[in-house]
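Quick start: read one record
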Amino acid sequence: MQKITIRLVALAVLLTTTLTMSAKDYSMTLFGIKSDGTTMNTRSIQRAIDHISAQGGGRLVFTVGRYLTGSIHLKSNVTLHLGEGAVLVGSVNPYDYDLVDNAWYALIIAKKQQNIAITGKGVIDGRGRELGNNFLTQACNGIINDPLKLGRVANRPKLIYFRECKQVQVKGIRLQNPAFWTQTYDQCEDLLIDGISVHSRAYWNNDGMDIVDCNGALIQNCYVDATDDAICLKSHDAHSLCQNITVRHNKMCSSANGIKFGTASVGGFKNIRIIDNFVFDTYRSAITIQAVDGGEIENVVVDSLTSINTGNAIYLVLGQRRADAHKLITIDKELNKIRRSKLDNVRISHVYAEVPATKPDAGYEYEGPIEDQPRNTSPSSIVGLADNHITNVSISDVEIVYPGSGDPDYAKVGTDELDKVPEMPKAYPEFSQHKELPAWGFYVRHADNVKFSNVKLTAKAKDYRPAVVLDDVQGGSFKKIKVAEPSAGKKPKIFVYKSKNISK
């Protein structure tokens, strides 16, 4: 894992040096690009990109002004440099956006390009609310297809969509107001995202950033504020992996999850490092790791995570949810075997989290949904399946503060009826999917070789539940567990059920 970090740091230095030393600057005025905010510049900007790429590369430099455009396609060896005060403004006309691979609309598009970058202190503004509403109007008129029929159109333009690109740098800029996911990097190699700020609250489902099946990525020093998952790792391809990824020194808040990977987990994730991040005012989990689509997750390190006013601290889950699993997941013809979701070798350490009694994103314009209220606060959880266990999880030097005050009148399942907790292998994975859980601190079910060390769990008020519940845990060490709960009496701190080889 240390070699991966060294490689990524070296990559960041190499990318910065290469792009800086070799870049020739081209002013936007050379191509007749207008900064008045009303002239449509799409063709002028594209002509500039094409010309610079054909000349061997360089930087297209935008100075102070507002530059209106529709979809533009970034080409190899070209950097879009937005100087301070320069704003690239997205059109609000749905028909100014190109559809890529019959799948995604985006403002800045690149496919199978290399040595590309977006840099500077400028802004990319998608004007997503007006653009999203215009998409919705066209869907209501029957012009644009809305297959999900959710009243918000499933596919709206992103700000950035790069696919199968190599040597990619996005640095320093501000991304704001997309109509959909802010930025997606799909099957890219050698990706650096450094020091950007993301303000993505113009519409529903606005992820801050999505890293999909990439090999070699460093995401660092970023600020992300999103209506949906802030930093999201995905795997869409059954024969690809999202691997060798480092996410470090970032700050984020969300109406969904802080750092999440695995909702789309078709191929899997390998060698992931989540280091020194801060999550606040976030509706769902600070960190959630999900293998639910037949993919495999292994070798994940989470270290030095701070989470304040977040609905859940840690959530690990296995599932098998895809309806088309027989086509994409369950049968791997090349390996001639059944593929099942796998979650193995996860190490989580040096975490401090505070979970509130109230809704942490209350007051946001786009809040997370109000689910099954009233309900008691959910614990951190490690939840496998009865026939497919999570394996080799280490939790150390972790402190989580809960509100306590669990009300037994809300309870769905108590410790005397743990078999009633549903398996839910096909459910959409969120920490709240199991509704009421019978622990207030940690709930561990269907897991092998789980180790807790130096874990402190604090309830501010008395809770009817035990702090920790172990259900079908085969092999584990739970040592140096400190539980603080007012008036706990003789209630066991750790409740063990159908588990073997547990040392405390």
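The chain is about 10% helix and 50% strand.
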